[in-house]
Structure formats: structure tokens, C-alpha cells
Amino acid sequence: MENPLVAVITSSAVESRVRKRGFRSISQLLQPFATHSVSVRDPSTGQLVSANVTIDFNDLNKEGHLLTLSVLPHVLFEVLRSKSQLNDALDSFEAALRKWAEPAEQETFRTYLACIFVVAGGEEKPMSELSRLVQEQHAQQHSSGDSKGLTPSHCGPPRWTTPNTLKHYFLLHDAAEDDEARTTAVFNEMCSTYGMDYCQMLRIGDGVVSEDLPDVWRDSDELDAILNAGLRRALQHAAASAIAHQTLERKPSATSVSTISPSYAVVQSSCIPSTALNGYPGNGKSLSIGEHAISAADREALKNVTLSFQPESVEMQSRRLADLAFLFGLYSFAQSHYRSVKKDFEHSQAWLYHAAASEMAAVALYLSDNKVSPKQFPKHYFDAALENQLTYSGKYTCVVRCALNASMVLSKLSMFKEAATLLSTASSLDNDMCVAVTQAHASRNFEEAKMTRKAAFYRILAGNRFMKAGLKQNALECYSRALQKYANTNWDSIEDHLSTVLSADTSDKSLAVACAIRLLRESAIQTETNHAAFLDNFVETLTRFGVSSETDPLALPVPLLDVQATRVICGERPQSDDVPLNKSIAWIDIERAAYHTLAGSEGMQPFDGQELLPTLKFLPEESKKMKSVVHAVDERLRIHVAQKQWPLLDFRIARKNQPQVFCGQAVILSVEVENIGKELVNALCLATDGLDCVSVSLVDTRGKKLTVTVRAPALPGEESDIGLVFYYRGENLTYRQWQTVVSLRPVPLFESSAVLLDEVHGIVAINMRNVMPANDAALARCEVLRIRLVSQNINDKGCWTEVDHANVSLQPMKVGSQVQLDCEQSCNACIRISVPSGVKNEDYGVDGVSWWLSPMSVDPPSWPAALPNASRIVEDSQHPFDNYYQLAIFWKASVVDNDGHRSYTKFRLCQIPLEVLVTNVDHGKRSADLTLRYRPKVTEAVTSLTQLPPENRQQWWIDRELVRSVIKYGESHVFRFVISVCQPSVYDVAGSQLVLEAIFDDADVKVFKVC
């Protein structure tokens, strides 16, 4: 608890003599002998009360109360870090907080009750030096401001309990250096000047050294080491903050603009300063304490006002008397005064003062009557004190001390649950270290209350706060204790988290290895990625501690493979599935169509002779049969190793997912096929569910490159998914497939509609429109190339098929006109459709049903026409038409960004940013050393552009020709460049000039194409 505090002021000669004896200050020399038994008469009862009082000495030249914000947190950090056990660290934290925290305005604890002046007998003028020390103390205490002339820079100014401080005078006599006669003469002069009762001679150096004496200064030496470490840490932090602040000041700042209105500024300038108002509430008790008439709104506004009482006010004098009684063991007398002054502070709405008085009233009540029962104890005193401290922004030192005092008192009353609950309310503090301490105390109280699960939970919270504050050792101990509760209790997520942290960070070899092994247990909720990470963590843990199987045999909880029962399945190489899981496509129908296409006409069936296990479900008619169930051997899946090798092709599709697709656009996919197996492939087919929108053609006659053209939906809407199955057959009649999905989300660009004007003569008007807005971010020009009449009918199998030669003709009403539509433009074209009678189909070619409006530079895709909509054909009629005609419009569009133009006459070069994303998906989980290299087209010296043909001239440049990076498995890296061009053109950035080389762990070098 709190102890009386006495200041010590010494001369330089005393400091020199004490330092020679191995002491930092004379207060360190006196502290082990500062506990005494005193008897004080209780003013209320007149009885003598005996108590053991420990006096705290502080040498003002070297010691004091540490600065609350800049020094004390770093010293408390070192206190927690210096102890190996968490309980010892918490106890040392509480003792250090009481010793070094600055005094609060709301109380007189940790203020100096008296002052001791020490001079040496061997000084030249000891009496003059003593007089000088007394004057320095008087000047410091009665100065107008906070004077720090006596204290070091890392301490706050000393505060004194009373205006007339008690003084005592010491004369230090060193038997090895000072003259006995002169010291005696000086001491007699001191006694005649200051009085016999206030003077004392302190002798050192005349004793006999004994080896049996205990080291009573060991604790003091440990505190000095902790204090010095904390001061060094605070100095480093202050230096780093100063450097950062200077860096910010050098940067140019924008001109500040005032956002305060003139009327508000006038009101604020006319208000009375709060510092002038703070002195008035102290007079409330003697003048008008019961005559306040304040509305509820005014009371709410007063909550934000910090009240301050003068030290000589009636309330603070009562508080000082209660504190003095508490320091010397008069707890009953102190408790009565605490209760009285608490009511005065409550009436004045000085809530921080009220909180401090409520806290000490509860502590004094417990110390005055140890037999008080938990029901009789006013726990609400602590609740109100802590709530007011948090609500009205009390110092964190006061909040933590209040929480620890409440925990101490309530735990001794066996109110462990209440103590833990109250400690948990301090978690709103903006100080991770203090919150961690309170939560650690709360976990101990929950443990005492037999609430082990909640205790473990609060240990995890405390560990998280310790880890956030940088106290890893304390955090790991909290995690280790919490793991004992969560182990083998089906709390797998928490157990895995704690085990991962402990195995990676703890220095305890046995604990780290045990946690690493625990992560490898069987778990149904962990993914394959997590299991792989746990295995890597296990290997890293063994490597970190140098564990070998010979010296430290380990039993891993992994399944042991039965080599005799193991069968090898030869399948595809490991690769990620190209089909998203959320795509609902009827794959079984597509696969069935592909299979019948390749294997339907073969005499040998590839799966002939293999057993098919049907899925049969039946429900017995009689309920008695359900009572006895016989479980057979689980043979839902049987695996056999095939004798023949199966073919294996590798399919690579470039730019399958395009950023933007327009309605009706022909999306061209370039598919590269490579035989990476050992079997010859003699048949390949493509099956799809997009029968009317997919066409395929061979680019390479050897079948190594295909072009798949997919027509986007004609109407905008939701995402359209088209499934593609590449089904192929080997020469030994073995089959394999590869499937993928093409997802299209089209936006409208070109729309068309037809209106029948004259049914007798077959005149039709076609309206065509470019629907892209003119104010859009892109500009588009649509050009109509061809209008074709498509005839479809139902064949013998009941399927719609296109008729290549129909007995119809299509004649435009206006020949030779081109149709080009810019944004938001439209056009109408009239055509005449005639059906001559008595003319055979072969007399009319394809050109007879096509109107070419513009010459074709490339061959149009040969995809089938869109399937007719049956609902539109039948309508209300019960007999559908035998023939169905559609007008197919073939168009092209030029789309450019509408972000302005660049003049190369004003700016010679145009710079374009480029990002290259590289992801390591190596199946061996190896790290890759990447090198991205730029190879220029022109390497020799050129004096004129006429020396080289245009195709070999330098087209684009890059700011960095060589970049490197190391990427671990599963990670990605983005290479950023700036490309410079000198003329408008289309540039092939993903060509042969950018080369990516990867060197894996086993020195395997691979070259990849950047695309």
C-alpha cells in the first residue's frame, strides 16, 4: 500500500563519500532500514494504534517520480520484461507503479511529508552548505511555477504535503576520512542552531565486515538496473520522435485555412478562461454548498469541465488529514473522513476527486475491519471509482492503481468473480501494456473462482495485448497457460492458433516441439493448405532447435502407409481445376455427347469389362426389416491400375477472360495443344452446350493450334457461362478429357430489328443502331458488312438444321450503299425477299441470300445460326412452321478510348505504365529466383534510321532492362515498369522482348513467356 515519502537533499561531498562506498545515493543506503513500528493515538477514540510503517526515501538530486507520458511507460515495460515468471512480473509492475508514478491532484499520496538535509563533517563550511540546501528547498516549494531545479530531467517536480515541511538534519561522518573532533564540533553547532531533536549524526566506515551478513541492497540494485534500462529506452524513443518531427517540419505544408466562424470566435474570446474558474469550486463547502440551482442540461455540460481544488481548500484539507491517518495505520479514522469528503466532492460534481475518495474509502474500510463479510462490503465504491476514472479521463496510473486495489481487496474477501469483472472494465484504456496487466489479473481471479474457461480466454486476451505492446515473453507465458485449458477440448481453431504462435516464437525447446507436433493431429476442419503450413512449421521448429531423429526420437501423429497395400494410379499431372465450383453446367450431357462422337462408332468399347456400381435406393415395405441392419464392406469406389498408358494433352488458352465483351461479339480464343504424354492421340473433338454460338477451326494442320470462336449473347443481362469439353482418344482406344468454362458478361453496342412492310411483295425494313452513348469514356464506330437470310427447318431427328441453299432470294432496295454508324446513330435499310415458284434449290447459291455491303478482309466465322425460339414460332398456333427464316447481320466495330489525344509534335515521347504479375504455383513448392529481362530489337550502333528496315527499328523502350526478385511458393510479385514510345501505333508488349527466367531451388532453370 501507500507509504510516507521523505525527501533527501545532500551536498556534493556527501554524494562523493556515498559513491565511494558503492551506493548510488544516500537514500539507497537508508532504504533497507526504513521500516519501523510506530504507535499513534486515534483522535476519535483516544486509543493507541500500533502499525508497521515503511518510509520511502528519495534523493531529489537523483530520484523522483518519473514523467507519466514520456518515461514511466518505458520503465514499466522493462519491469515486466525483467521477470521470467508472469506472476513475479505482475507483482513487480504494481510495486514499480506505486514507487515511480507521479502524484495525482486529487490526493496527497506520494507527496513529500518531510525533508532530510545531509552534509558531511569533512566539508570546508558544512553549516553554510546546510543553509544553502535549506534555501534551495524553500525556493523550490514556494515558487510560483513547477520548479525542477532539484530533480533530474526525467522526473517531475516534487510536491509537498504541507506548506511548512518538516525538516531534519543529518551530519555524515566517514570514519576513514573525516576528523572525529571537527565532526563533533560541527554537530554541536547544528544542534544549537536547529535543535537537538531535529539533528542526527550518521556514521559510516567504522564497522567490521562479516561474510554472514545478508545482502539487503540486492532488490535495490535490481531496481536500479531496471530504471537505467527504462531510461535508455525512453531516450531512444525520444530521439527517434525528434528526428521524425524534424523530418515533418522540413516538408512544405499547405497554408492553413481557418474554419471557425467570426461569431464563434467572438463568443470564445469573451468567455472566462477555464483556468480562472478552476479555483472557485473549492469554496463551495463554506459559502453556498446547498444553494445551487442547476438544470439537468447544465449538469450534463459540467461533465466535460475538469474541476480543481486549491491545496488549502476545506475539502483538500480533509482529504490530506485522511491520507495522513491512512499512512500511519489509523484506518477507521481515515475511512470516516474519506466518506465525508466523498460526499462533498459528489455535491460539487468533482468526479475525479470523488473517484479517488471512493477508492480509498473502500480500502480503508477493509483494512480497519478484516472481519467484514462480502455482503457488508460496499463494492459499489470501487465500481463508481473506476467508472468515474474512465469516464472523466483520469490518468492511466490512477485507473490501474484503482483496479489493482479493488482486485486486492475483493480477492481477499473471496469475491474473485466480482474482482475479475471489475478488472475487465479497464480494457477501454488506450494503453496495451496496462490493459494486459489488468486482464492478466482478471484471469487469475477467474481461476480462483473456478471459472477456468473464462480464465483461459482472458489469458489469451492478455497475451494479445502483451504481444501488441512488444512483451513477447509475457505473451507466450499467457498463451502457454491458456493452451492447457483448450487442448483436446474440440476448440481446434484456438488450439491451432496458440500452438502455431508458441511453436514459432517460444525459446522452450520441449514446448515448441510439443506444439508443432500437436498441429499435425487429425482434424476435419483444417484445409490442405493449413496442413501443409503446419508441416512446414514442424520442420522449421526442428531445424531451429537442431532436433535430430537419433538424439531426440519423435512420434508424429501421421498415418503410416502400408506399403504392401499401396497402389499407384497413373493420372494427369497436378494442376488447378480450370472450372469454377459455382458454375452450374450440365457436364454429364456434354461428356456423353463427346464420348458418343468418338467412341460411338468403334467396335471396341473402352470401358467394356469394367464393373459399374449403380446407385440403388429402396425402402422396405415392412418396418421390422429396418431394425436389423447388416453393414457390408464399403465398396462404393474401387480402384484398379490400368495396364495401358493413357494419352495426356496440355491445353493452353490465351486471353480467355477478356475485360469487356459486347453483345453478339465474336470472341476468338487461341488454343495451343501439346502432347505431354507418351501415347499418340489420333482423335480429338470439342463438345459444348453452346450449340448455336461456338465454332472451331484448325490453324495448324498438325492439330497443335485451334481457334475457337464464341459468339456472345445477343441481349445484355447476367453472366453467360459456356462449357467446353476437349475429348481425345489414344491409339490404344483410351480416352481422356479436359474441360473449361468461358464466362461472358456482354454489354450492348449494336442493335437491330426488322419490320415487315409489305407482306405481298416481301418488303422488309431493317433498323440498325449504335447504342453506345456519345458521352461515354469510349468511342465506337460500327460498320455493317453483310446481311444474310438464313433458312432453318426440322430434320428427320426432330432437330433444327440450317439449309445451305434455300429457294429464296434477297434483293436490296438500294444497292452499293455502306452503313457506318457512330455513337447513338441509327440507319434503316429496306430489302425485298422473294420466293420464286417452280425453281429448284440448287439454282440459287449462297450469294443469292446474302447482301454484301462492304468487302471482307478476313473470312467470317462459320458458326451456326442462332436456334429459333419455339415460343415465338408457335405463338397461339398448334402447328409450328416447317421452315424458319432469320436475318443475320454481320458487323464490325472500332472502339477506342475517349480520353483525349496526344500530340507527338509537342511531346517527343509518350510514357505508358506497365505491370507484370508473377505467381509461384510450382507443384514442388519450391522458391523461385526470377529475372525479368528486356531484350532490345536493335543492338548494333545505328547512325540513321534508313540503315534498318522498318520492321527492325526500335519501337518501344523500358526504364529498367533487368529486375530480380525471389518468390516463395504461393506468393505473388508485381514488376512495375514505364514504357516509352515515340509514335502512335499498336505495340506488342507481350512479345519476344520481355523474357522471364526462373531458377528454382534445385537449380532447375525455366523460361516463361510474358503474356
Automatic annotation (TrEMBL):
Name the segments for region: Disordered: 132-158
What domain of life does the native source organism fall in?
Answer: Eukaryota
Q: Which InterPro entries match?
A: TRAPP_III_complex_Trs85 (IPR024420)
What species was this sequence derived from? Haemonchus placei
Provide the protein name.
Foie-gras_1 domain-containing protein
The residue ranges flagged as biased composition, category Polar residues, are: 137-146
Q: Which GO terms describe its cellular component?
A: TRAPPIII protein complex
